Write the structure tokens for this entry.
Amino acid sequence: MKFYSTNKNSEPVDFMQATILGQAPDKGLYFPEAIPQLEKGFLQKIENLPDEEIAFNVIRPYVGNEIPEEKLFRIVSETINFPIPLVPVNEFAFSLELFHGPTLAFKDVGARFMSRCLGYFLRDQEKKVTVLVATSGDTGGAVANGFYDTKGVEVVILYPSGKVSPVQEKQLTTLGKNIHALEVKGTFDDCQHMVKSAFTDAEINKKRFLTSANSINVARWLPQQFYYFFAYRQWQDKKNAPVVSVPSGNFGNICAGILAQQSGLPIRHFIAACNVNDIVSEYLGTEILKPKQAVPTLSNAMDVGNPSNFIRILEIFQHHFPELKSHLSSSCVSDEETLATIKEVYQGYNYLLDPHGAVGYLALKRYLENHLGEKGIFLETAHPVKFPEAVEKATGETVELPASLAELMQKEKKSVLIDNDFDQLKSFLLQ
Ligand SMILES: *Cc1c(COP(=O)(O)O)cnc(C)c1O
């Protein structure tokens, strides 16, 4: 399988090069030249297939023979060695719980898959790769955990000081070894800005081979398709395909779902569930994509003012607006509505949502109110304990720490404090 750049000014590359490069040299995103179609019979037998078998079948056409089959099978097995259950909340909404991985958010799957692929591709090389990421919270933890102790890979994570939750901070500052956390006196946007400058800095690039580990990277983006297959496998009413609501920020996750649908997975409709950062909602109304300054919200992993993966969704539908609109709706949820939803679902159905899942649930509920008789799934993208303040505010009860986290919270934080000053990042990377 070849991947072309959405800007069409770089050469197509194979999966290995796309994984190592991250972004295309022309700053486009890599996109598969053809969308593989599911084999006949795959969906008929899906209920009897183990998760790793499903995942292997889904990803293999994209990887081709660049990773031998047994090795790829082992990579997917290690990637998804935790449950992804579909839990009924009430008669119309089902929660796909993506938070049972090591850092309690859905990004674990992509980070674990990408780190193992990169480790494989770099197995005999002298050269080290530096994964450089800015995080508003969840990405950093998943990347730190996923890449911990991966041979040939150094990880440098920038996070805004005082702006990530205590659990998130421990997840990215306590591992050590090849994981380095830089605590920046600034905002997430400042961190992001510094990372972008590093990618274009000649001196740094002479000294280090930099790559990114956000959902721009195909090896992090593509395995997110697995969730939708696991959801379908557990969906009882196979005659009526589900509507799926995806809490969205950078639009990598939902785009992977649409890709899965285009390869033949039965999904009736997608809902991009957003907070007040409404760029895509506006686009669906006006056909004009206008990036904005991100507004901070309770569902902070979705505070994105210029969703980088949206271009891939346009690519799937070949920039044909009516086609796109028939597959995708969007709904925006305020912080007040998020808190009210957490409360309502907790009191009414005894199910505890995190702020991101709450956005997903309410967007689904609104859609189903206008489509009577349909049922749906929302993705619960993080464990409520990662956002204790919001959840406690909504329910009036404290969220209990799972045992694994209690241990983490005891560990010592190790980070390097830097100013919002590119030169300080640069000297760190050059030393
Ligand atoms: C990253 C993240 C999202 C948004 O996912 P995208 O792929 O960027 O749209 C939603 N919820 C949580 C908890 C996240 O960490």
Notes: Residues 136 and 188 are 6 Å apart (CA to CA). The pocket of pyridoxal-5'-phosphate is lined by residues 105, 107, 138, 215, 247-253, 301-302, 356, 381-382 (CB under 6 Å).
